[in-house]
Predict the structure of Pyridoxal 5'-phosphate synthase subunit PdxT.
Amino acid sequence: MTTIGILALQGAVREHAKAFERAGAEVVLVKKVEQLESIDGLVLPGGESTTMRRLIDKYGFMEPLKAFAAQKKPMFGTCAGLILLASDLVGYSEPHLGVMDIKVERNSFGRQRESFEAALSIKDVGEDFIGVFIRAPHIVEVGQDVEVLAMHGDRIVAAQQGSFLGCSFHPELTDDYRLAQHFVQMVETSSKETV
């Protein structure tokens, strides 16, 4: 069975765990660096990116997460997790992990009270996926190796680059597990390629 880790420092951890269990994966809540060795793919959940970064630094996760990415192990960032993956952030001189060739703007859809839901067409996932946007970022630019998976109006809200997947919205806050299944399939494909 494919083992998906959820970085369990802050954010929508339980909701992601439920989504991936429904998608047929074994789930590990990653609270210690050593646990990265026992998982096939890692989810960086939605939450608050500044708080998440502070906890990543506090518990010594930064270099191990970069090493995990360097091994081309799949990573999926949702909302705050997307911000962590991005190589370029609008208004910031330094990225966090910086492993995905995208430029991201934080809180670009407004504040908490401006949260909304929207029907999205997500390539390889579905035409009718409901995206839940809460203080959501969006992808401003993508590198040439990045595939855009979904748009909301003129904004990129989901993209994939090799073993990295990122989205602006919160797929874990719905009962639609197709995006989780898509990531599980990415992980399974990656595992076969590295055998």
